[in-house]
Every structure is written in C-alpha cells, then in structure tokens.
Design a protein that fits this description.
By secondary structure, the protein is mainly α. The chain is 80% helix and 0% strand. It is globular, with a radius of gyration of 22 Å. The two termini are 26 Å apart.
Amino acid sequence: MSNDRLWNQNYCKVMAANFMLFFAFYVLTPLLPLYLSEHFGATKDMIGLVLSGYTITALLFRPFSGYFVDSFPRKTVLMVSFGAFAILFAGYLAASTLLLFTIVRTLHGGPFGALTVANSTVAIDVLPSSRRTEGIGYYGLSNNLAMAIGPTAGIWLYQLSDSFELLFWLALAVALAGWAIDATVKIRPLPPSEGKKVKAPHHVASSGQTSPTDERSRRWVSLDRFFLLRGWLLGLNMVAFGFCFGVLSNYLAIYGKETLGITGGTGTYFMLCAAGLMMSRLQGARALRKGLLTHNAAEGMVLSLVGYTIFILMPSIQHLFSFHSPLLTFLGYYGSALLIGLGNGHMWPAFQNMTICVATNNQRGTANSTILISWDIGMGLGILIGGVIAEHMGYNAAFWAVALVNGVGVITYFVRTRAFFLSRNLNPSVR
C-alpha cells in the first residue's frame, strides 16, 4: 500500500514548485496592464498586443516541449526550462522602453510553455498509477493557491510601495525558489520512446528500403508527438474556455475601475475565484476517484457560464433600467468570482484527464502540451481580441463576447465533445 501513497515526497515537491511557478506569474498578471498604461502610456489595443505575445510564444513552444518531455530526460528539460523562466523576470527590470518590454515579455512565454508541460508531466510520473486521476485533480490546487495569493499579494504590495520594481524582484526570487525545489525531485529514468524507432519488416530491412506504409506511419507518429491528434476536439473546446479567462484575468482591474467603479476589489475577486477553484478540487476529488470525468466537466462548464453571465448582466441590467444598486454590483461582481472558480476547478482536471485517457502511456507529455496549447490559444485570442473590442466598443462589449464564446463552448461539449471522448477513451475505468 505504501507504493500507492498519493502524497509522496516527490509529488509534494513538484506541487510546491508549481505553486512557485504560478505565484511568480500571477503576482504580475493583474497589474501589467496598469504598468504598461502608466509607465509607457500604452493604449488599450497596444496593451492587448504586448501581453498576447507571452501567450503566443508559449503556444509555439508547447508542441515541441511535449515532444522533448516524452523523448529526453524529463528532469533535464524541467530544470533548463525553469531556469530560463526565472532568469527572464530580470528582463522586466532592465526594459526601459515599451519595445524592450515587449521583446522580454514575448520571449518569456517560451520557457513558461515548456515548464508547465514538464512540471505537470513529472507530477504524473511520480504518482502511483492507482491514484493518478485523483492526483491530477489535486495537483491543480497548487495553481489555485497561487491564483488566490499571487494577485492579492501583488496588488497589496503595489498599493503599499507604489513600486513595480519590487514586484519584478519578488517574482524573480519566487521563481528561483521553485527551481531549487524541483532540483531535489527524484524521478525514474524515462524508457525509450516507442515513437523513436519503427522496426521494418524483415524483407524490407534486408533490402535497405522503406515501404510507403512505414513511411506514412513514421510521419503520423512524428506529427502525433507534437500534438495529440486523437484529442483534437477536446483541445478545441478548451480554446473557448481559455478565451474567456484570458479576457477576465487581464482586463478585470481596468474594467472594474472604469465600468463598475470598483478600484480596490481585484485582489479580492481573484481570491474568491481561487477559493472556488480549491473548493471544487476538494469536492470533485470523489467524482475523479470514481472516474466520472464527463460529469465533472459538464458541471464545471455550466457553473462557469452562470458566473460569467452574472458578471456581465448585473451592470447591464442596472444601466438598462437607469438605477444603481451597490449591493447588486457587489453580489454580481464577487458572486461571479466564486462561480467561475467553482466551474473552472471542476472543468480543468476533467479535461486534462480526458486528454490523457485518449493518449498512450508514452504520450503523456504530448497530451499535457495539447491541453495547454489549447488553453494558450484561447488565452492569447482573449487578450488580443478583448483588447481590440475594448478599444473600439468598450470593456462591456469585450465581456459580452466572453459570455457568447463560453456559451458556444458549452453547447459544443454537450452536442459533440462528450461522445468524441467516450468513443476514443483508452481507460475503461473512467467515463
């Protein structure tokens, strides 16, 4: 039974390092639009363009990182990507112009994309197979805790010190601490990848020729090492949900200040969102143990849709009927945070597990990179398109686009994605 222990030492270390990684990310996220606006005088659409570069670069690195994690020593990939991720925080301190900041921010997305794939794949490796589905769900708690503490700590420190430089130094120090923790993790050596060598039939091998069938097979395997083709519709569904969170996480502070008149509630909003995420992970652990992935995903999507709709409807209803109720604004704003957190907390581990369940054992890295690629595409589109819509039509229109895209994602899941997963599932213990 000791081999089936969920909270083993290496798993706890990987979770702690993951917390450090995402804390360093989230401590800056809600304040970067304000930094670009106040420090460089960037416009709304320029802010969206600058910030989307991070996500686009992460997206470009995801497929290759999945391949490298599956094909080379995972510890080496993990340490190199974590080291590069940490060091680039120093670039923000050195960037004296908007162009230099844009270059550093764009480059920073590369190691972030590789690191999140490597760390989550190592977490799967150090879990006992009998507890893997449950462990993946709990692993996300480290992200959620970072989301709860990071933005709140960043906003509080900025209000206290009025210094963005302090935040950049903090992010650098925390990322280096995460690198040091991951350096102590012990993982089993990776067995040779089944996709590296394709044994030819005897008559082909003796002639030194390659059959067209084998050539097509190698090309197919090669492509599938970068993106999990068997899980393409799961990934497409995640693009919609990533879009919504991309708009929310990057434009919440400005939207709250300009549209809702809420100047100091961003940190509380993220804390409530993260509280919902953590509650859902703990609540959903039982369903994950039972393998009820499609149930968890459906429950999460509906909760998120209700949360986004409430967030957008409250100010719109008050504007339509020409009355203002601080209580309704308060309930709609903070209540939506809890619902969105609950929804995403159910949905994310369910989709991650579903993607892993349609992959073979030697494609875990590729499966992880695929779901993260999809989230990154959505986040990048949300940041970029959200900024353009806000520039020309206002932030209220940008958040209405969020409700529309989220609704399309929910409909797609119930009409097609659920059946798509069940028809390709390689793990009979989940459904």
